[in-house]
Amino acid sequence: METTHIEHIGIAVRNLEEAIKFYEETFGLKCYAVEEVKDQKVRTAFFKVGQTKIELLESTEPDGPISKFIEKRGEGVHHLAFAVKNIERALSETEAKGIQLIDKRPRKGAEGLDIAFLHPKSTLGVMIELCEKKEQE
Ligand code: ZN
Question: CA-to-CA distance for 70 and 60, rounded, in angstroms?
Fold first, then answer.
């Protein structure tokens, strides 16, 4: 797998507006995009910190993955996203190593990235998202 950088860190929050305000007022960051990803039942807010982004995630449904995460563990770091080259190949290599995939094929995430999650049971307790920015077709 060719991993180039940490694309973003995903953080689960209960209230997106309050969390945006907190990150702006505390860390001097500026939220540059709020986007709903229906597929994942979340609303996301993005901040740039150098090359890496912070992605705040608020659930839009009580049965969404972020709701369930917060119920179990409370608010906090939810996943780490690695930017990779050739996400399809990265996934097949990962699967061949016996690592459990949540997404066998890439799907569309926020910001138009192709994304796929690996199961934290297989990755030492950290949910890992692989993502790739494909050129506009
Ligand atoms: Zn993410």
Answer: 13
Q: From ligand 1's centre to the CA of 42, what distance in Å?
A: 11
Distance between Cα 129 and ligand 1 center (Å): 6
Please state the φ and ψ torsions of residue 105, each to the nearest 5 degrees. Answer: -125, 150
CATH superfamily of 2-132: 2,3-Dihydroxybiphenyl 1,2-Dioxygenase, domain 1 (3.10.180.10)
Which among 115, 118, 119, 117 has a CA at the least distance from the CA of 106?
Answer: 115
Q: Which residues contact 38 (CB under 8 A, 6 or more apart)?
A: 60
d(CA 88, CA 130): 10
**25-57 confidence digits (pLDDT tens):** 999 999 999 999 998 899 999 999 998 999 999
